[in-house]
Write a structure and sequence with these properties.
Chain lengths: 278, 379
């Protein structure tokens, strides 16, 4: 009898050791690294060529010789993954990885990435836009930057009539625009369709920090600036004419052209270490 | 003496059983401890009263996920106020109930196209809001696929409610509004429904979905027949049902009278050249296709088709026999014979119409629980 009791006690202790809960959520998110306490600041600086973007009050020229002013330039950055020099990577937990960069809102241009594992980071990978899964998920998954309540004719980035997000929004005016109001509107979205295949304009970007290393360790907080060159949107491999196409939205050919233009609009700017250290 | 011995024997038996039991329980606890947090998206209990919702016996399971938005009396009541309140529009007049009126099974009776803010005309006929918990696709072109995302569309359409959801939320937060026709304290209603007075996009949409989920029509004479009452339909209506299943049932399928597919039913394009589903998918094969509507309560929902071009069911039947226009994307089922369209005699068409009238559900259009709580504007 006593033997049986001891046997059970032993079994209980062993089971406690064996079955002890392990948190496998991070393993699912990323096979490489798990969350830590590090911090990383990511700044998006919107430029036109080499100059800082000025809304409304500055006239630019496209490669077709048409002049333009820009009134709105917004885009989504999501699903951020930090790449470490040793080849490992850390994917920011998805729920904290959607950002709407709005040119008229400077606060939206600085992203604070928290709870990172320590390491020397050499690059970054992210999506311009919103991944297809999140584009179809329930409304409880659409808070923060994804809140669909924004004004469509304003800085809102949600399409109500064709449910999904606008990945990039560029608006402005051009004397060459053939629109009756002289403006142009480029709203590029489309995630591939819910139950029927449509155009997929989701683009993944990979930026190398130009050989430098962003060191995340304790109080050491790196700050990386990336440039987003608006010129690339209209002067890319598929130049946009404000005369010919003052509005590009859901068009299956033209929207792809613009997305292929802007997928290379990002470049590495500069890296500062400890810029926000306490 | 004997009995004591027996007890002792039993005791000796009990002990190992007890130890075994503890062991099993322990293992159970250990296993339970590692269960992943299931349903971590489930809303927190709000102190509101759960509302029992049962699907009609002859219906399939609903598509809308009720576990993510469990119905409560307070949630449905809030949804009803939001549904009828003109606060959702830029001029404070146009509510959902303006173009979706109960007496016409939540369509806009007599309106081929509805007029929104500043009397602007929409471009498609207002569809019925009934049994929407079974809809896998919304609007004539299926541009929205989740009920919680439906209200953004009419609210933000400049010719419908001409508002932004953001601004609606702000207006709701600032109620009761002394200048309003009826004083409604929305923060209080949101608190009753969701536990705190916070007014968010998610809560607003979920309340509207809760109310719309309750808008079930399943008490027509046809339903009585479907549930076994053979006397519920007349001989002509039964004949009509048979003809209907043969000729119309491939699209207006099942108990919901639609399979929610997108079809070109041979309507000649009008001046607006509405290309329907194509606008969403941009696939050539989808040109001029529109969602197959349910035919429940069809007696109340005139005019018919996505542009409201037909005023009577007679005209609709005439379309299918004589007016179907051939085109690249015309539904193959409508060109099975020599000429496009269905082959039906006048008597057969009349029987089908007689059957269609049995899909009328008086309780649905009169049920007070779906009615305007005194806040709406029917224009």
């Amino acid at each position: 009898m006593k033997k049986l009791v001891y046997f059970y006690l032993l079994l209980m202790v062993v089971s406690l050791l064996v079955v002890a809960c392990k948190d496998d959520s991070d393993e699912i998110k990323d096979p490489g690294l798990v969350a830590g306490k590090g911090k990383f600041l990511l700044q998006f600086d919107n430029v036109v060529g080499k100059q800082d973007l000025v809304l409304d009050n500055k006239t630019y020229t496209n490669s077709l010789g048409e002049s333009l002013t820009i009134s709105r330039f917004n885009y989504f950055v999501s699903n951020i993954k930090l790449l470490r020099e040793d080849g490992q990577s850390y994917t920011i937990p998805q729920d904290s990885s959607y950002f709407r960069i709005v040119e008229s809102d400077p606060k939206s241009q600085i992203l604070s990435l928290n709870n990172l594992p320590d390491g020397n980071y050499s690059g970054i990978e992210y999506i311009i836009g919103v991944d297809s899964l999140r584009s179809v998920s329930g409304i409880e998954k659409r808070g923060g930057a994804l809140d669909p309540s924004g004004e469509m004719s304003g800085d809102g980035m949600y399409w109500a009539w064709n449910s999904g997000y606008i990945f990039l929004k560029l608006e402005g005016a051009s004397p060459q625009s053939s629109a009756s109001n002289g403006k142009f509107y480029y709203h590029i979205g489309l995630f591939g369709g819910f139950n029927q295949k449509t155009v997929n304009n989701i683009k993944t970007v990979k930026i190398d920090f130009g050989g430098s290393r962003a060191i995340v360790k304790g109080d050491s907080i790196p700050s990386v600036k990336l440039y987003a060159d608006v010129e690339k949107v209209y002067n890319g491999p598929n130049p946009i004419s404000f005369d010919k196409n003052p509005s590009i939205m859901a068009d299956p050919v033209l929207s792809v052209g613009v997305a292929n233009n802007y997928k290379s609009m990002f470049s590495f700017g500069e890296l500062k270490q400890n810029s926000q250290a306490k | 003496m004997k009995s004591i011995k027996k007890i002792l024997e039993q005791k000796r038996l009990i002990r190992p059983v007890l130890v075994l039991l503890i062991g099993v329980t322990w293992i159970g606890v250990m296993l339970g401890a590692c269960k992943p947090e299931e349903n971590n998206q489930e809303p927190e209990p709000s102190g509101s009263t759960p509302l029992a919702w049962k699907k009609p016996a002859n219906f399939p399971d609903p598509v809308y996920n009720l576990t993510k938005n469990p119905l409560t009396e307070e949630g449905v009541a809030l949804g009803k106020f939001l549904f009828y309140d003109g606060i959702l529009s830029s001029n404070q007049i146009i509510g959902c109930g303006t173009c979706h009126q109960q007496q016409s099974a939540f369509t806009h009776h007599g309106h081929e196209l509805s007029h929104g803010v500043n009397d602007q005309l929409g471009r498609r006929n207002s569809p019925s809001i009934q049994n929407v918990a079974w809809n896998p696709a919304f609007f004539w072109d299926g541009g929205v696929f989740d009920m919680d995302f439906v209200p953004f569309n009419p609210i933000e359409n400049p010719v419908e409610m001409g508002e932004t959801v953001n601004h609606v939320l702000e207006k709701l937060r600032n109620t009761p509004d002394k200048s309003a026709k009826v004083q409604v304290d929305y923060p209080k209603m949101f608190k009753a429904a969701f536990g705190t007075p916070e007014i968010t996009t998610e809560r607003m949409m979920k309340a509207l979905s809760q109310f719309m989920t309750t808008m079930v029509s399943a008490e027509s004479r046809y339903d009585k027949f479907a549930l076994g009452d053979v006397t519920a339909l007349s001989t002509e209506e039964k004949e009509g049902l048979k003809l209907f299943r043969q000729n119309c049932g491939s699209c207006h399928e099942g108990e919901l009278f639609t399979n929610f597919s997108f079809r070109n039913n041979g309507l000649a394009p009008l001046k607006a050249d509405d290309q329907g589903r194509y606008e969403v998918t941009k696939s050539e094969a989808d040109k001029y296709k529109f969602k197959v509507p349910s035919l429940r309560n069809i007696s109340f929902t005139a005019p018919y088709m996505h542009d409201g071009r037909y005023k009577t069911l007679g005209e609709v039947m005439e379309h299918y026999t004589d007016k179907v226009i051939n085109s690249e994307t015309l539904d193959p089922l409508l060109r099975a014979g020599g000429k496009p369209g269905l082959n039906l005699s006048e008597t057969e068409k009349e029987s089908i119409i007689a059957f269609l009238r049995t899909l009328s559900d008086d309780n649905f259009i009169k049920n007070k629980s779906f009615s305007d709580p005194g806040i709406g504007n029917a224009l």
